[in-house]
């Protein structure tokens, strides 16, 4: 067996007995949304009572795609031969016969809505394991003042694993994002992870705090901040799909650099979901708890984040065509790849676990 890139021991491109982000709560309405995931054409829709459903999007009779243009009330009608389906995916009527052949139902995929996310279980033939559903409550405390903004979804012509690993790769920032994120001191290298918190559904890399004199821009955002600013950053993976990258806590310090009050938090959310074995849906958003009524600041962060993601996608799209014959077992790694490799080994272990269960 030749392992699939970038793994060293498995031929499956991503874990299947897992929850992935299907989309944002706000984009799923009573009008069906077509989205290919896990190599299958799916429909995402919201029922009249507000529940989200995910169904295969092809009529089982002749594989005709179902679409919103052929929706009548809460029924989906195949535009080819008129088969009618309810919102559970059951074929409820045919125009020319009363008997409904076996196999005419659409396949439902388990979904769970935890706003702002809608999660989908990637293996509908297996019972959905709720214990694998990530707990994202840490991102949205009940008494928090955070706002969510800059949400969106884009397409990457590259496999999900390299999209995921890129979010834990710090050494590319100076070269891929010099205009949007700036350059770092190459001689000193990227930030090193000082600690790792690893749980069954979450892994967090806590980076050393970076201290620097408070800039005029930071002082304008936080008038009461001290002369030294400390930025504590982290990168986290929730389950296998949701990444909080460059999650930053901005801390006020005195002249000696002693930390004091936390002034604000800024977190960038990335939802990575396989479309096919070699393409990916990339969901993104930002959270912050300061200047929450400033639309101009929201627009500034949103525009920059989209530019950063566009720069990453340009790189990932260029790499993918060369991976069909690549072998991760013989590829060299840099010391700065440690976090990305840790993520790779974690995902690979989940795939091996699935293979063992199926065997």
From TrEMBL:
Record GO terms (molecular function): 2 iron, 2 sulfur cluster binding; metal ion binding; oxidoreductase activity
Keywords assigned: 2Fe-2S, Iron, Iron-sulfur, Metal-binding, Oxidoreductase
Domain of life according to the entry: Bacteria
PROSITE patterns: RIESKE
The Rieske domain, residue ranges: 19-120
Name of protein: Rieske 2Fe-2S domain-containing protein
């Amino acid at each position: 067996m030749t392992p699939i890139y970038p793994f060293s021991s498995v031929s499956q491109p991503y874990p299947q007995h897992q929850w992935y982000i299907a989309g944002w709560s706000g984009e799923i309405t009573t009008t069906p949304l077509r989205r290919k995931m896990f190599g299958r054409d799916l429909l995402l829709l919201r029922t009249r009572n507000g529940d989200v459903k995910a169904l295969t999007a092809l009529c089982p009779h002749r594989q005709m795609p179902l679409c919103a243009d052929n929706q009548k009330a809460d029924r989906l009608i195949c535009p080819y031969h008129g088969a009618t389906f309810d919102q559970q995916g059951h074929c409820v009527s045919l125009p020319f016969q009363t008997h409904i052949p076996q196999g005419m139902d659409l396949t439902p995929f388990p979904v769970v809505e935890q706003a702002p996310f809608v999660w989908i279980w990637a293996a509908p033939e297996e019972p959905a394991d709720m214990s694998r559903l990530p707990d994202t409550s840490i991102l949205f405390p009940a008494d928090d003042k955070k706002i969510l903004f800059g949400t969106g979804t884009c397409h990457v012509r590259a496999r999900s694993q390299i999209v995921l690993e890129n979010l834990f790769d710090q050494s590319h920032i100076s070269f891929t994002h010099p205009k949007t994120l700036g350059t770092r001191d190459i001689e000193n290298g990227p930030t090193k992870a000082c600690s790792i918190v690893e749980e069954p559904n979450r892994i967090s890399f806590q980076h050393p705090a970076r201290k620097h004199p408070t800039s005029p821009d930071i002082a304008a955002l936080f008038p009461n901040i001290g002369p030294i600013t400390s930025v504590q950053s982290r990168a986290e993976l929730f389950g296998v799909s949701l990444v909080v990258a460059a999650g930053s806590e901005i801390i006020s310090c005195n002249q000696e650099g002693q930390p004091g009050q936390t002034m604000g938090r800024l977190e960038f959310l990335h939802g990575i979901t396989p479309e096919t074995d070699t393409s990916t849906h990339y969901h993104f958003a930002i959270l912050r708890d300061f200047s929450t009524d400033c639309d101009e600041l929201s627009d500034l962060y949103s525009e920059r984040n989209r530019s950063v993601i566009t720069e990453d996608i340009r790189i990932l799209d260029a790499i993918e065509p060369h991976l069909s014959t690549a072998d991760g077992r013989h590829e060299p790694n840099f010391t700065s790849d440690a976090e990305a490799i840790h993520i790779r080994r974690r995902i690979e272990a989940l795939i091996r676990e699935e293979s063992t269960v199926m065997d």
